[in-house]
Amino acid sequence: MGEDVFWAIRGGGGGTWGAVYAWRVQLSPVPERVTAFVVNRPGSVESVSRLVSTWQHVAPWLPDEFYVSAFVGAGLPESNRSAGISVTFKGLYLGPSQEALQILTAKFPEIGLSDLNPREMSWIESVVFFSGLPEGSAVSDLADRVLHKKNYFKAKSDYVRRPMALDQLIRAVDLLSMQPKAYVILDPYGGAMDRVGSGDLPFPHRKGNIHGVQYLIEWTADEDGHKDEYMDWLRRFYDAMGAYVPKNPRTAYINYMDLDLGTNNWSDRRPDSTGQVPNPEVEAARAWGERYFLGNYDRLVRAKTTIDPDNVFRNAQSIPPLRAPGVARSSPRGISPEVMSNGAAYDG
To answer: Could you tell me which residue ranges the Berberine/berberine-like domain spans (predicted)?
Structure first.
């Protein structure tokens, strides 16, 4: 396989590298009992923004064993879909509830401790707890692979390297308060993630980032006639947030595969001035590839060229291989023939 390919398949995007038939993995120990909680805090735009601001200054620096994410929106399920903006905190601590409460008392009392109701359970039970399955579901229900309800969503993403100013958060939360179908997920980084360098694995957004931002808007099958309206709203919100997040490039999370950033072009076979065929796919894909992978993009291209030079495994945002000078491959079918870009990949 080679070192570059083994590196590439551990985070270089799905559907790109081939079929992996077996993995040998090293498990990490977890305690017999862990602590989990979900708590919703409604309020005014300003009060919710202040809570999120405090979260930004606390969550990335909690002990490695403590994860607390924040969901912000005007129609969160934990608020019973009632009107008004709120923030939901979801916490998992690898240890007993008493220790979790002690840490929150010292680090994040603003979350509100009187009704937090942390629950102790096994780690696998915590997977059920956070899965979104109905109340009372069992561990065995995790094996149910049938999609019982058809919903749709559009997602985009960012990474944050320093806390946003309170006035920026207020403007963002105020926009969210106007669209109850939209929400953001703030995933804390820091901890052990901050000890993984950007080039250690293809996914580069660990060290130096304090949290990710996932922008989402959801709708049901009955509402699918309004999908363009919903997606346009999310794109406008994402554009507005561009003033508050790192740029050059503005980074993104590969597992959301945001086609707004661009798609592969497998049909461009124009020769260069020497009559040889250059690598237009590689350069076109850089517009989104560097947003997902930063400086790891070129190494991923080399790995792709090694393991799949004929581009058998491909999709709209798979890593393209280099082609040998003067050799044109046959054009794969099933991929959009156009490269789309919103022009914001390298905005200043």
So the answer is: 252-320
